[in-house]
Amino acid sequence: MTGLPALLQQARSEGDRLHFDIPADWMQGRTAFGGLSSALALRAALAASPELPPLRSAQIAFVGPLAGAVTVEARLLRRGRNVAFVEADLSGEAGLGLRATFVFMAPLASSIMHDSAPQAPRSVPPTDASLYVGPPGFFTHNFEFHDDKAVLEPAEWLRWARLREREDLDPPMELLAVGDALPPAAFRLLPEPRPLSSLTWQLNLLTAAPSTRDGWWLLHAHADHARDGHSSQRMRIWNADGVLVAEAMQSVAIFG
């Protein structure tokens, strides 16, 4: 198994580009796990411009398959007094595979203080909890999951997840890698397994410095609509203290 910290350290720099080799155990079918690809894009974005403010939003399009040797090219789109926009493209043998726009924003003085975000509906797994690790050769082998068998709606997931190797990871990069680890919520509506593929993902960070304990993040996904081979789902991520740290939306293609 090649953990995310080791994979990031293996980056090869060439001008404004970074080169990575995606191992087989980070694949999901014929393409790399979307959370990994997103993290690689963020790694390049952080290198593209010095002293960026905190990451507050990521807009990601999963354009095509990525496997093996990939190149990430990032460019600063605009940098204002408080906000910076950085775009990053991942390309492989099949061409463009991912395009991401990252929004970095410094804290601003504001008279508004509003927080109606719900606390996590589940407690962090105990130290003796039974954990699930995915099979070798599939991206889930890089994670540990805990599912308390909660009663859920037909198109809903709620699961604790953490990277098995996470030492010295930038917290937003860790959050991007973990945040896409659930199957699409529409998967639970299928009478039998069918291929699904994420199309777009927008993630908004609710704090400038996301953090958790023991690597645990509670992931939630709920599909509001699934029809004509397309699903739209809402997503939330809480830390181990039950604090909501990110909200997201994702569109998904359903084949069959």
Concise account of the structure shown:
The chain is mainly beta and 256 residues long.
What report would you give on this structure?
This protein has 256 residues and is mainly beta. The protein has one domain: Beta Barrel (Porin). The chain is built from 3 helices and 14 strands. The protein has helices spanning 4-9, 34-48, 171-179, and strands spanning 12-14, 17-22, 27-28, 31-32, 55-62, 68-79, 83-92, 95-105, 143-146, 156-163, 196-205, 217-227, 230-239, 244-254. The strands form 2 sheets. A 12-stranded antiparallel sheet has the order 1-2-6-7-8-5-11-14-13-12-10-9. A hairpin with a 3-residue loop joins strand 6 and strand 7 (83-92). Helix 2 runs antiparallel to helix 3. The longest helix is centred in the N-terminal third of the chain and has 15 residues, at 34-48. The protein is globular, with a radius of gyration of 18 Å.
In DSSP terms, counting alpha (H) and pi (I) runs of 4 or more, how many helices?
3
Sheet with most strands: strand arrangement: 1-2-6-7-8-5-11-14-13-12-10-9
> CATH H-level name... which superfamily?
Acyl-CoA thioesterase, double hotdog domain
CATH architecture: Beta Barrel
Count of distinct structural domains: 1
Determine the strand fraction and express it as a percent band.
35-45%
Q: Specify the biggest β-sheet.
A: 12 strands, antiparallel
Structural class: mainly beta
Measured distance between first and last alpha carbons: 32 Å
| Uncertain residue ranges | none
Rg over C-alpha atoms, rounded to the nearest angstrom: 18 Å
The beta-strand count equals 14
InterPro entries: ACOT8-like_C, Acyl-CoA_hotdog, HotDog_dom_sf, TesB_ACOT8-like_N
Domain Acyl-CoA thioesterase-like N-terminal HotDog: 22-105
Domain Acyl-CoA thioesterase-like C-terminal: 133-253
Pfam families: 4HBT_3, 4HBT_3C
